[in-house]
Amino acid sequence: MQNRITGLFDIKYPIIQAGMVWCSGWRLASAVSNAGGLGLIGAGSMSADVLREHIQKCKAATDKPFGVNLPLLYAHIDQYIKIILEEKVKIVFTSAGNPGTYTAKLREAGIIVVHVVSSTKFALKAQQAGVNAIVAEGFEAGGHNGRDETTTMCLIPAVSDAIRIPVIAAGGIGSGRAMAAAFALGAEGVQIGSAFAVSEESSAHEIFKQRVVDSVEGETILTLKQLTPVRLIKNAFYEQVQQAETNCASADELKNILNKGRSKKGIFEGDLNEGELEIGQVSAQLKEIKPAGTIVKDIWEEFERVRKSI
Length: 310
Hints:
The chain has helices at about 5-10, 25-35, 50-60, 75-85, 105-110, 120-130, 150-160, 175-185, 195, 205-215, 235-245, 250-260, 260-270, 290-310; strands at about 15, 40, 65-70, 90-95, 110-115, 135, 145, 165-170, 190, 220-225, 230-235. By secondary structure, it is an alpha/beta fold. It folds into two domains: about 5-205 and about 285-305, TIM Barrel (Alpha-Beta Barrel); about 215-280, no CATH class. The chain has an eight-stranded parallel sheet. The protein is globular.
């Protein structure tokens, strides 16, 4: 397929692997890129030196385009930007912050910039900031999320109608059928997290991956809306957060609960009780742990079948 997204990134399939904390290292990113999609290294759980190492290893593992996902909320963001420029990364997906702060600097270096949003309002602001494309992420998505709880089916057509640049759909997409639906709503690409979070190449703990594929409908929930909303699997950690919110805990008290490395504990170390098990609603549809390349192939082939049948 050739469209504005495949042309922008010089990729075969308009399938982007999300840059997820504790999951998206160089192995996963290179595997997705080698399969014809766009792999992203998730800088959110990396120190600056570790990010450089993963970029260099990804370069060695693939000659295809790949990028870095960069949350803008981190205190040492300038260090990450410096490394991205020094390593000549060609594609950067930004999230969780103001795209106006760094987009111009990245674009001046010849970098393609994409920003993740959860509303039409922020999509318009990102377009004004000069990004090349938008990821519009519905509240079905795992990890950090929008407060408005706008679903993907409502968000994608609204954003597509409002902006001129290409839209990449995210949130609740883990199959070719869902990809076809996103394209019908106006998207020109999809960003997929949960399915790749449980791939063989994901750096998440095997216990976490198995818990995800064992999950059923209704086991994830959006919580922590006082801070940054996050979707996760219900467990003892979630119950602790729920109790704190019921007791009208302050934002500082909730931060204290989170400041124990909860996402690392759950996703990377496999602590199913005390860890933060970030994953999307689509987890209930994921039934096995597969190679990332197989995931790309299966999604694309199903997308083509559904598109032809429609």
